[in-house]
Structure formats: structure tokens, C-alpha cells
Amino acid sequence: MKKFILDLTVKENIKLNDTNVLLKLTSQDELPEMKPGQFAEIRVDGSPTTFLRRPISINYVNKTLNEVWFLVQLVGNGTKRIADIRKGDALNVMLPLGNTFTMPVETSEKLLLIGGGVGIAPMLFLGEQLFLQGSNPVFLLGARSKKDLLQLEDFAKYGEVYTTTEDSSYGEKGYVTQHSLLNKVKFDRIYTCGPKPMMMAIAKYAKANKINCEVSLENTMACGIGACLCCVENTINGHECVCTEGPVFNIEKLLWQI
């Protein structure tokens, strides 16, 4: 797909909790086509310590309102600077980047979308698109505590939502990999994004149960176009750049010990 570098306007900057904000961006022109799983590289302006763009998953696309959403976790100077932007300000964004999740051919397939922490971000757009094509996705979302579970009402528009929290403040206690749902339902396909140990555990579960599984990797992607080689991952085809060959990979392609 063609890539664009655009100055988008901040329509809303919503503080979800102490460490996450939701940015809703728009443009005077129609936004480019974007698909679930893709991401953007956002330029950080006004920071003397941040020189490279920050990769952020595309959280949601509202074509009616001509909006693209980004769920930003404040983890360093770059993301904190992005989160400080105000309504009406311009944000320079390069998008859409990377590949996409594989959409199922049969709408009857049982689909499980698993997100951990800020890894829930690409699951919302994917869930909506699956719902619109006639599928019935199920969401399994995990976080440290109730305050860290984000966008639950948005997810509930497109399917059943199950949750885990490490401190048992909401949903089942523990990690998503320990949720009772995994022992009750045989899913045909799993999509997941989150911390690598979580995704590796999900991949191990999927492989043991012969479930088609795709993971969205969160390797450091400094350039987004395969030039800097910061994000390489070892695959059956050798070392591949996650920003160009991914970020979505079928687990059968990854050389993980699962």
C-alpha cells in the first residue's frame, strides 16, 4: 500500500489513565485507506532528546468522521511529548505502515482476539472489521489492574469481552494465558498483541491445540521502512524487518521455542 506523510489535526486528546491517552486525529482531506494490524510512525516535535519517530499501532479508523485513533502509552520522553499535544495542534504522521492481519474466509470460524496491556490497541480495529464482515469475534483483554483495562465499552460493541487483571480488581485474576475461557472453547483462529512473553505463551497454546495464530510484534521500529534494521526478527526465511515484513506474523513463520 502507498505510504503517506501527513500533518494531521488533533481532534481530541483523551486521558484514559495516568499512563495512557487516546488521540483522535483528522484531516481536511480524506484519510488514506488503513487496515487492521498496520501502524504509523509519529514525529516527535520540540524534544531535544528525541530524534526518531515513534511507532504507534492504528487503534481504530472512523471513516464517517474521517478519524484515525492512536492509543499512546507514556513510556519515555517521546511518547510523553506526543501525549502533551493539544486539540487543534498538528501531528506529523507517516502511515499506513506494515502488513495486516489475515481476515478469515469463513465467518463461522470461532475467533479469539487477545490483547495484553497497550497491546489491545490493534485489536479494536481488527474486531470491528471482523464484526462488519459477519464474524463474531471474542475479546480477551488483560492488564495489571482495573484502571489499566482500556476501551472496554468500545470492544463490547463488536463482541463478547473477557478480562483478566493481575491484582484481581476486575475479571479473572492472573494473566490472559490463564483465563478459563481457553479451556472451555475451541477456537479456530487467534490474533494477539502484547508483551512478547505473553504472545509466546499464547503461541505455545495455539500450537499445542492446532489453532491458526497470528501475533503482532512490538519490536523497536525506528524508521518504519526497513532501513535502520533495529526491528529484525529471526524467521524461517532468515532475519526479517518487523516494520516491513510484519508487524503481523503467523507463528509458524517465527523461530520461537514453543
In sequence order, what are the helices and strands, one letter per element?
EEEEEEHEEHEHEEHEHEEEHE
Our measurement of the CA-to-CA distance between the termini, rounded to an integer number of angstroms, reads 32 Å
Strand order of the largest sheet: 4-3-7-1-2-6-5
* Oligomeric composition of the shown chains: single chain
* Form type: globular
Low-confidence stretches: none
Based on secondary structure, the structural category is: alpha/beta
* Helix content percent band: 10-25%
Compute the CA-based radius of gyration: 18 Å
Tell how many strands the DSSP assignment holds: 16
Largest sheet: 7 strands, antiparallel
Number of helices: 6
* Mean pLDDT figure: 95
The share of residues in extended strands comes to 25-35%
Relevant terms:
single chain, 258 residues, alpha/beta, 17% helix
Outline:
With 258 residues, the protein is an alpha/beta fold. Helix content is 17%, strand content 33%.
List the helices and strands and how they pair.
Blueprint: E1 4-15, E2 20-26, E3 39-42, E4 54-57, E5 60-62, E6 67-73, H1 77-83, E7 90-97, E8 111-116, H2 121-132, E9 138-143, H3 152-156, E10 160-165, E11 172-173, H4 181-184, E12 189-193, H5 196-208, E13 212-216, E14 232-235, E15 238-241, H6 242-245, E16 248-250
What features would you describe in this structure?
This protein has about 260 residues and is α/β, with parallel strands linked by helices. Helices cover about 15% and strands about 35% of the residues. It is built from six helices and 16 strands. The strands form three sheets. Strands 4-3-7-1-2-6-5 form a seven-stranded antiparallel β-sheet. A seven-stranded mixed β-sheet has the order 11-10-9-8-12-13-16, sandwiched between helices. The protein has a two-stranded antiparallel ribbon with strand order 14-15. The longest helix is centred in the C-terminal third of the chain and has 13 residues. The protein is globular, with a radius of gyration of 18 Å. The two termini are about 30 Å apart. The mean pLDDT is about 95.
